[in-house]
Amino acid sequence: MLKSVKSSNKSTLLASSRPSVQRARLVRPASAETDAASVTYTSSSNGASSNGASASTAAAATSTVAAPAPQPSTPSSSSSSSSSSSVVTSIKLQLLELVAALDRGRLAGHADKEAVERLVASLEGSGAGLQPFGGTPAPVEGRWELLYTNKEVFRASPFFAAFQGGLVQSKELAEAIFAFTDAIPGADILSAHQTVSLLSGSLISEVGMRVWPGFSGTVVTSSRLSVASPTRLDLAVEKTRVAGSSFGPFLDNVAVPVEQLITQLRGEGAAAASYEVTFVDAQLRVTRAGDQLLLHRRVV
């Protein structure tokens, strides 16, 4: 009997000192259409708690966690605009990196020209830079440096477009003359710039040249310009002269009246050229003159 009592006391002692076991039951909302997604956890005890609390009191202890309902995600116009801007920036960086090694196109092979054309086409198709003549000042205004052309570099001047279309009036003959000019030994193009002003209606082209054995100077061509369409400029090439020549001020004072001469030979309006501005922003301008591609970077 003494052994039985000891066994009973031992069982009671173990039961009272054993920690209560907590179990969690997940209670789901009754309706799937509830505005806020709520999860309720109910805690219950199968035995007496260590501090003597009753099972009914422990079972009543509940904890509820409520999370806000997820909101539908809709792309904002600002994020879409930012994405488009990033694409344009990426294309421009690739284009600038490519033409930097081509000496304004003089070192470009067939594959290089195709790669430049693809990037330019992507830039034109981006939908950016499509209002070159809007605002004050217009994006096209300013001084621009030639970065690349798919023709001979000296042909960046509109004088040669007027020469081909107005004077020679034969693309094949003009191409032969230009190829001969480009092959003159020792000839080098030092720089090529354009200054565009819609306010004064003028485009000034400057092409710096050095020709062996020691002649150098800048060929300056002045043209009137007018806005013909939302993307097109019409030019009338007025005159051309050499500035800063190594032959001194005598040659600098000589201006060739291009428009007057071509008009006398070919008629009114023959000394004309057209520029299609297909992309322009604060840094870069893409211009097409027939099959000629011109890529300029803003200087001022």
Task: Label the CATH architecture of the domain at 129-298.
Answer: Beta Barrel
Question: What's the Cα radius of gyration?
Answer: 40 Å
Query: What is CATH's topology name of the domain at 129-298?
Result: Lipocalin
Strand content: 25-35%
Strand order of the largest sheet: 4-5-6-7-8-10-11-12
Low-confidence stretches: 1-68
Number of strands: 12
Helix content: 25-40%
Query: So how many helices?
Result: 8
Reading the helices and strands in chain order gives HEEHEHHEHHEEEEHEHEEE
Secondary-structure class = alpha+beta
Largest sheet: 8 strands, antiparallel, barrel
Mean pLDDT: 75
CATH class of the domain at 129-298: Mainly Beta
